[in-house]
Amino acid sequence: MKEVYDFLKKCGTYYLATVDHGQARVRPFGTIDLFDGRLTIQTGKVKDVSRQMMENPKIEICAFDGEQWLRMAATAVEDPRIEAQEHMLAAYPSLQKMYKAGDGNTQIFALEKVTAVFSSFTQPSRTIEF
Question: Which residues, 6+ apart, have CB-to-CB distance to 1 below 8 Å?
Answer without folding.
Answer: 34, 38, 39, 114, 128, 130
